[in-house]
């Protein structure tokens, strides 16, 4: 019997796409459902701050899915809310991948790479799909030298995330039983369309819960923002645009100090499109930095994906050698600060106004946030509970 070979899937991210209408809508729908599923699964095992990138996970897991067969493919496509048809998946991502190289007015890039064990054979057809559909690089390496392989992978990830994600893998993560490591690095950097001036920062209390408060750095400004008070989930939504208006960050603030857990149970509604309206608002939000490491294996298994991790997995589209996924690791980073877009935008911002604002939006308690591309889905979603 041939040994069953492992395959690792790695994702590296930093917080920093137009396709045919039917495929765009299909992907948007799958992205939202997958994001909601992943958020709920993580929140059940993590009570602290976390950040996840469902978009990156969908990309790299879809790369594995198109090489899967039978029940392995069914479980993966079902979890990703994608069609159980590799041709349709390829069609979606072939068009999607062309739109991840944006340098102005914001930076958005998604890079895939397959690091192959030079002792194992991967089918030419799969290599062709990886390169032409997913725009993936492919490199063969000697996996007997785990330290060198880890160094090369980490160097590549750092180069694709502006040096924000470091040490994704360690030397002892690599061994000759592994056929391939599939890596995705997604990077986003954007400036606020409406700048928070450096002088607009101060410290105030953040209510961790009804009994605990801590001092936190906050930033504030007054402007017209998209806002909605959703009584169904008892929370307020406020959308902050980045320069270019393609990408927005939405803060979802529960009315109750201890309401973030209840809000998370309605995450599908939270991530869905809201009837936002432009309002005059004074907003106060925290400055924060979060780095998360998420082992996706447990998350995916809780969502019904078990076959790909078993020795009975079927990835015959990748190799004739029996193989299964060993783990899926995602490392994410986000930093939120005052950085704005242009001096012109800054000149329009002032708190010294005579009239009262329509909305006071003060983020001084646990909240949910997400970054979304206007056309193609949720890039990052996270929860902030405590500084």
What does this structure look like?
- There is one protein chain.
- By secondary structure, the protein is α+β, with helices and mostly antiparallel strands.
- The chain has 2 domains: 5-190 and 290-334, Antithrombin, Chain I, domain 2 (2-Layer Sandwich), CATH 3.30.497; 198-286 and 338-384, Alpha-1-antitrypsin, domain 1, CATH 2.30.39.
- The chain is 27% helix and 35% strand.
- The protein is built from 10 helices and 16 strands.
- The chain has helices at 21-45, 54-65, 70-79, 86-96, 124-132, 146-160, 260-264, 267-271, 296-302, 343-347, and strands at 5-14, 50-52, 101-102, 107-117, 136-141, 178-189, 201-207, 213-230, 235-241, 247-254, 277-286, 288-295, 323-336, 359-362, 367-373, 377-384.
- The strands form 2 sheets. Strands 2, 7, 8, 9, 10, 11, 14, 15 and 16 form a 9-stranded mixed beta sheet that branches.
- Mean pLDDT is 84; it is low at 14-20 and 340-354.
């Amino acid at each position: 019997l041939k040994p069953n070979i492992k395959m690792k899937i790695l994702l590296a991210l930093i917080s920093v796409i137009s396709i045919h209408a039917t495929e765009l809508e299909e992907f948007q729908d799958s992205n939202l459902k997958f994001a909601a599923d992943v958020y709920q699964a993580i929140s059940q095992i993590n009570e602290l701050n976390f950040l996840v990138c469902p978009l990156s996970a969908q990309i790299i897991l879809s790369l594995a899915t198109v090489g899967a067969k039978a029940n392995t493919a069914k479980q993966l496509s079902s979890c990703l809310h994608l069609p159980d048809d590799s041709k349709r998946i390829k069609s979606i991502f072939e068009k999607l991948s062309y739109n991840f190289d944006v340098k102005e007015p914001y930076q958005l890039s998604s890079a895939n790479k397959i690091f192959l064990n030079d002792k194992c054979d991967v089918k030419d057809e799969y290599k062709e799909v990886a390169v032409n559909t997913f725009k993936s690089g492919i490199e063969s390496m000697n996996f007997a030298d785990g330290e060198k392989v880890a160094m090369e992978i980490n160097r590549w990830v750092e180069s694709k995330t502006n040096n924000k994600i470091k040490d994704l893998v360690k030397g002892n993560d690599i061994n000759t039983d592994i056929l391939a490591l599939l890596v995705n690095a997604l990077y986003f950097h954007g400036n606020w369309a409406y700048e928070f001036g450096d002088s607009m920062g101060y410290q105030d209390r953040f209510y961790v819960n009804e009994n605990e408060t801590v001092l936190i750095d906050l930033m504030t400004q007054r402007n017209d923002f998209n806002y909605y008070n959703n009584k169904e989930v008892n929370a307020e939504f406020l959308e902050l645009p980045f320069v270019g208006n393609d990408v927005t960050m939405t803060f979802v603030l529960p009315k109750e100090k201890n309401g973030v857990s209840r809000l998370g149970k309605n995450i599908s509604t939270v991530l869905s499109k809201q009837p936002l309206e432009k309002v005059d608002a004074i907003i106060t939000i925290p400055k924060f930095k979060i780095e998360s490491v998420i082992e996706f294996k447990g998350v995916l298994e809780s969502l019904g994906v078990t076959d790909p991790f078993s020795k009975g997995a079927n990835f015959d589209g990748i190799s004739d050698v029996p193989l299964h996924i060993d783990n899926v690791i995602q490392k994410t980073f986000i930093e939120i600060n005052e950085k704005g877009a242009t001096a012109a935008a800054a000149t329009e911002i002032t708190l010294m106004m005579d009239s009262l604002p329509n909305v006071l939006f003060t983020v001084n308690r646990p909240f949910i946030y997400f970054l979304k591309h206007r056309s193609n889905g949720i890039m990052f979603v996270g929860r902030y509970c405590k500084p």
